[in-house]
Amino acid sequence: MSQRNDENNPPSTRSAALSEQTVSLAEDAVAGSQVAFNRLFDLFHDDIFRMAYYRTLSRMDAEDITQNVFIKAFRNISRLRSPERFKSWLFSIALNQIRDFYRKKYLRTMLGLSGKDNDDETDYEENDAPSPLDDLMKKDFWKHVGLFLDKLPRMEKEVFTLRFMNHLDIREISDILEKNESTVKTHLYRALGKFRKEATMRQFLEGTQKGGHST
Amino acid sequence: MSYDKNKHLSEDEFLTAAIDRDDLSAIARDHLSECPQCREQIENFESELATLGRMAERFSPRQRRQVSLTVKPHHAGRWFWGLGTAAGATAMVALTVTLLWWSPFSQTMPEVLNGVTFQETDQLMTDIDKLVDNPLPQVYLYIAGESQQKSENDSGNAVPTNNNITPSYNSAMKGAVVC
Known about the structure:
The complex is a heterodimer of chains A (215) and B (179). By secondary structure, chain A is mostly helical. Helices cover 69% and strands 0% of the residues of chain A. Chain A has nine helices and no strands. In chain A, helix 2 packs antiparallel against helix 3 (59-76) and helix 4 packs across helix 7. By secondary structure, chain B is mainly alpha-helical. Chain B contains seven helices and no strands. Chain A binds chain B through residues 1-2, 4-5, 7-8, 10-11, 41, 45-46, 49-50, 53-54, 59, 62-63, 66-67, 70-71, 74-75, 123, 125, 128, 137-138, 141-142, 145, 164-165, 167, 170, 185, 188-189, 192-193, 195-196, 202, 205-206, 208-209, 214-215, and chain B through 11, 15-16, 18-23, 43, 45-65, 67-71.
């Protein structure tokens, strides 16, 4: 049903064929095939990394979280009852790992055990940016995104990020957050209403589109 | 209630359409299909959101560290190895106890070592006799120039004489003369 809004689906490789492949691999992985699990890892580790990165803005932390997610998934894959929901299941593990990450970080801060703060580590390494202009755009982009997302309540922020940055559909978000679809849509509705009013960010995105810097 | 076709989509309908067009009322859906202005606005809005997603992906760093699935051994295996280690340790302890129990230094099994015990008692008596008769060890008696008197109570064990003292031992003593 959600495929009716194909315009909302990003131009990515998440086609119906890929979904079928995922289900097939998940079934094999549940049955015990490590080869199938490795293939699933290849398909999703970038998505999980980005999901973690969007919420931590730290490459190192995102890598740690990604590793923990797949280790946990590997250990528990045999318990997955619905292989067709593998993607949602994997993302829900990721979300829990991110929550754990922040919980531990909060505890460390409270106990005065936090070491070097990685908040300033934006991983803007020169190797990642092909040009200084690109590097500048990258910093600008994350600054605008951060300012906008900070205005949103937690659930609206999560739904908006999962939908438009992690490219998940309403059903998948509903599974991950364990909320019904109408609740997810309600949060999304409110978040989009605020996004519509975010003139600065929209101008930035529009300018990027017209300037041809988008991919 | 008739829908005014000149009236474009409301903000509410606009956002609903951006989320899921199936949730639009039939009238709004019909308007959208017939109104290029509303359609263009929604498509532009959706395009902005798609750009947001693309840029987020593009401006994310690449993973540097290769993720490795280092999974800890299964609990059943760990349990098995733990049991094996415990069994081995127990066996070692038992072996050690057994060796100590059977060692010559142990004198707690007279029913088995009776013969040896009696011999040891005899030797002890002989030693005591020797102490009484010859308070000094033989080698010292020899050094002192005293002769060796063979004890009458000797059970038969040869009382060590000077001759029994090996030359090497004797020569090691200061002033000793090898016969």
